[in-house]
Every structure is written in C-alpha cells, then in structure tokens.
Amino acid sequence: MSRSATSRRRPSRATSSSSTIRSPGRPSPRPAARPKSTAARSSAMNVATPSASSPRSWEEIRHRLDHGPVFNGMRGTPYYREAVYEHFSPAEYRRRHAALRAKMQELALDVVICPGGPSHWSFGGGMTWLSGHWEWHALANYVVFPREGEPTLVYSMGGTHCEAVRRETAGALSDVRSSRNGQFGRVMAERIRELGCEKGRIGLLEVDPRHGDYLPVNQYNALKEALPEAELVFTKGIMHELLSVHSEEELDCVRHAGRLCTAAMEAIAARARPGVTEYQLRAAAGAAILEGNGDIDFLIIGSTPMADPAQVFGNPRPSSRRLEPGDIILMELAAGYRGFSAQIGQPICLGEPPAELRRFWDEIARPGYERMIAAIGPGKPVDGLRIAGQFFREKGVQSRPIHVHGIDFVSDGPHVFQDHIDVEPFEEIMKPGMVLMPEPNPITADGMLGMFVGHTFIVTATGKECVDDWPLELTIVQP
Fold first, then answer.
1. What is the reported pLDDT for 56?
2. DSSP letters of 329-382?
3. pLDDT tens digits, 57-71
4. What is the mean pLDDT of residues 140-161?
5. Where is the sequence biased in composition, kind Low complexity (predicted)?
6. Are residues 430 and 370 in the same domain?
7. Are 213 and 351 contained in the same domain?
C-alpha cells in the first residue's frame, strides 16, 4: 500500500538482542520471619516440599492432606475426574507450536517464556494460547516453551487448584507445575535447566503488549540468578503477529464470543426500565455472558437524558444512577470465549427519541457506519477504513479519534484513527482470518452527545462476516 501523508506505518517489531532491565541496586530488607512453635518446626522439617521432579503418589498423600507441603504438592489425584472441558484439536496445537517455533528459529531463541494475565490488554495472552487456561490468581502465569521439547505451564497455585488446571489443560500439555507460592522465576529456571537450555537465548514475551510490560523484576532477577549463563531477550509483538490471521478453530471461538455479545445486548434491553441502575444493567449483561460459558472482558455502560445529553461514550465504571424515561443508554461490551473475544455496542433509547437524536442516528451514525464496513474485505487496504471515516467531518460532526481496531486475543492492531493509521507491515492489507472492530463513535458538533456503534467482523475469502446478530437500528425500549 502506498502511504499517504496521513498514514503512519510502524516499523516491523524487532527483537532486542540484550536485556534492558537492571536489578535494583539495593535489595529491600527481608521482613522478619514469624516465629514457629516447636511442633510446627518439627512438622515442617519432617515433610519435604514435593517438587515437579519428585511427585508423591496418591496413596502416599491421601491420608496427610492437612500437611501444607503435601497438599500443595499433590499430583495424580482422582480429583475433578468428572470435569468436562472443551479442547482445541491436537492438529490446532501442532499448528500453533509450529508457528511459534518457526518464529523462534527466525530469532535464534532456544526457549520462550509466554505469559498471560487477567487484564484486558493481556487476556491470557500466549499462556492461554498454548495451554487453554485463563488465570486471575497472579499478575501472570507462564508457559515455558522450548524450540525442542515439551511445554510446561507454571501455574500460580498448588493443591486442588493445580489438579483442576491439569484436567483443564490436558488437551494442550502434560506438564503443569505450581509456582510454589509465587516462585515463578525459580520454577521456570528449573524447567529450562531440565531442557538443557541454561546457556541458551531465552525470549521473554510481553505480559501486556499495549503498555510494553513484561514479567515483574523479582521474577526476572530470579531467572538471572538461576541462569547466569543464559541470555534473556525482551521480544516484541510475537503473539500479535501469530494472531493477525486466525485459524478456523480460533474463529469459531470469536463467533461464539459474538453470540455472547448478542445475549448481553438482549439482557440490557430487557432490564432497561425506569429505576434500574447502570450497575444493574452491567450485572444483566455479565450474567448473560457467564450463562453462555464465556468470560467478561469489559462492560462499559452509561446513561444520559436524550433531551439534555452530556455523554459521548459509555461509562467505564457503571454508576448507581437510576434510569429515567427519556434516557439513552450508551455502551461498549466485550465477551471472551476460550481466550478469544468479540465486542459490540449500539445505543438503546428508553422511550421515543427526540427528532434531533433520531436525525443524528439516521443521517450520521448509521450511514457512517455502513460506509465504514463497506470498506472491509480481503485484499482491501486498511487505509480505506480511514478514508471512509472522513464521512463524519464531511457531515459537520466529529468522532472519537479511534475508528477501527483489530482483535488478536483482544483489542490490538491494526489501528485506524480519524487522521492516520497505525499498522504493522503484515496487516496493511486485509486478509481472510483477520478480525476487525469498526467502532467510529460519531459525536455532535457541540461535543455533548456521542453514539458508539461497533460490531466485530471476520474478514472472509469473499467478503466479511459479522459475528453478532444485533440489528443495525436504533433500539427503542418503552418505559
């Protein structure tokens, strides 16, 4: 694509060849240990903490579950044997492994550490992609993934939590280890030594690629201390590149997430009555997502009077404000399913809208959105979406700066703004399997009312596919 003066093309995300984080110059003093009774000290001394390399059999531990080290180190129990989980196919995991290993070969990495946390910009990340697990017990959990050998999930908890996760991830990997009370760096280093890569190049992927955050400094320092001859390399953008185009199994998850978005919108419309609070609308939407075996990514919901509006975008923190007849509800919702997500948003009116508001929908919000989605399709330039978004200024109104973004696990590139695009070279042209979220959010010229309109689309071989069933019309609920 030839770049115009209004386009910005990011250079290809390069991999750093050396670490850039320094250990703190002066370690903080350790807190004083709590005194233990003689009996407690004897018990602790007589029960060795099990490790991944020396698991104890079920028969050895089943009558000693009240001993902390025994309980936390359990493995191979009958617990959760009745649990039923959905898994991606073995072929899908082979595809993912091959794609990641090809990237590792390109970057001369022997092992990569793939983290994932519960925040929006992480949403499980590479950890979930490789394990099928989504986690909230820590800033991040990690998959140690070697170029040769089997991957290992280092999970925050031990005991029954860890046993449940072993059941959940059985279709993806066979080695799940406890962090042993947050010693992620040490446990990862042990696995890297087992792989014979203690002198190799270890790639560190982002926990939060949006803000460029990696594993915490204490875990980094533990890796450095345990692997003094290894080279720790901060990589950038690996997972986004691998997820720029999704597989068919991944797209099925995006479609399921789209159905959850529809259910959440239906729940808001059904609950929207005078006297209902914004947080109760949030509860209704969240319950609909959970009822469909999904995960809540975010629920942005706000309300304002249509006759005297003072809101251009939904409220990221839905409040205790009670709905009144004549209100408009603005929202953006995101639902996840098995590590993949879809987003949606469209105004809901509590009662008939005033003529000016109806005109803004009919002449600005809807036709502007239709113009934008017409620019989606295989082989089309992403910059065409920016050009389509000029509609709003041409009509004498404005908008939020962002008009379109992509979705890998969650919101990411390509980003299309009112006046420029921010793209990687591999996503300048739309390809089948890409997932896009057009969300132009026009705003009145006086800056007092906005209408977020957004639906998630899959780029297909012949065009595009909207993953939700919510109609593109101004929804009116009678109070």
1. 82
2. EEEEEEEEETTEEEEEE--EEESPPPHHHHHHIIIIIHHHHHHHHTT-STT-BT
3. 899 999 999 999 999
4. 97
5. 13-25, 34-44
6. yes
7. no
